[in-house]
Write a structure and sequence with these properties.
With 243 residues, the protein is an alpha+beta fold. It has two domains: 123 residues, Diaminopimelate Epimerase, Chain A, domain 1, CATH 3.10.310.10; 93 residues, Roll (Diaminopimelate Epimerase, Chain A, domain 1). 17% of the residues lie in helices and 42% in strands. The protein is built from four helices and 15 strands. Strands 1-2-3-4-6-7-8-15 form an eight-stranded mixed β-barrel. The protein starts with 14 loop residues before the first strand and ends with a strand.
Length: 243
């Protein structure tokens, strides 16, 4: 069995241990989007990433190929991704914890370098290129109640859409839901890359309430980039067995 904590442990062809984080929790550690993280994965083929992600039942999983270099790969159940917000924030949080100090950069395999840091209140942030974020449709509705009333699209209808409404436009607070059946996630609990793009679209910082109670803070960063920040907590690790 591979160990997510032991760099010397060889990878079994069938069994993998994933650390489990919840990213974009509230300040009390509730809610958040689950994320699987495997450490010391430089020898693992990328085709295992979507399989492990699907087996975990998560929207995304991160392979940390090189802890010292902050080199990662990001996967959803269908493919490898350039950049995704909750995997990047979660990876930055975990690498900071492993190193005993916040990191200042992440290096996703398919994207440019991603700046990272930690706020005084414990939130971890990342700043990335909007061009590296997944493409999706953005649909504004008139009220949070309309957003909440939407049914999850049928699994047979490929969808990649963020639906949102202002909760308090003056305060910059948003209610949002993200549907991503096109990549194996009917509804995402918290979508950092979508919050980054939304902040850029409205041209101002936003606080997004998504899913059951996840909280994301995003803001434009200029030059085609945006930031997203949130709290992270850790749950018990899990073992994935692939046949």
């Amino acid at each position: 069995m591979t160990s997510a904590a032991d760099p010397a442990s060889p990878h079994s062809p069938a069994e993998y241990t994933a650390l489990v984080l919840r990213v974009f929790t509230d300040a009390d550690g509730r809610h958040g989007n689950p994320l699987g993280v495997l450490l010391h994965t430089a020898g693992l083929p990328s085709e295992l990433g979507p399989r492990i992600t699907a087996e975990l039942g998560f929207a995304e999983t991160v392979f940390v190929d090189d802890v010292a270099a902050n080199a990662i790969r990001i996967f959803h159940p269908a493919d490898e991704m350039k950049l995704a917000g909750h995997p990047a924030v979660g990876a930055a949080w975990l690498l900071g914890r492993l190193k005993g100090a916040p990191i200042d950069v992440l290096r996703p395999r398919l994207a440019g370098e991603v700046a990272a840091g930690r706020e005084a209140d414990g939130r971890v942030w990342i700043r990335g290129a909007l061009a590296d974020c997944p493409e999706r449709e953005y649909v504004q509705l008139g009220s949070p109640a309309e957003v909440d009333a939407l049914p999850v699209p049928d699994a047979g209808t490929p969808t990649r859409r963020l639906v949102w409404a202002w909760e308090d436009e003056a305060a910059g607070t948003v209610r949002a839901r993200n549907f991503s059946s096109a990549v194996g996630t009917p509804e995402d609990e918290a979508t950092g890359s979508a919050a980054m793009v939304l902040a850029d679209l409205v041209g101002r910082p936003v606080r997004v309430r998504q899913g059951a109670g996840s909280l994301l803070d995003a803001r434009p960063a200029g030059e085609g980039r945006a930031e997203v920040a949130g709290h992270v907590t850790e749950d018990p690790s899990v073992t994935v067995r692939l046949t």
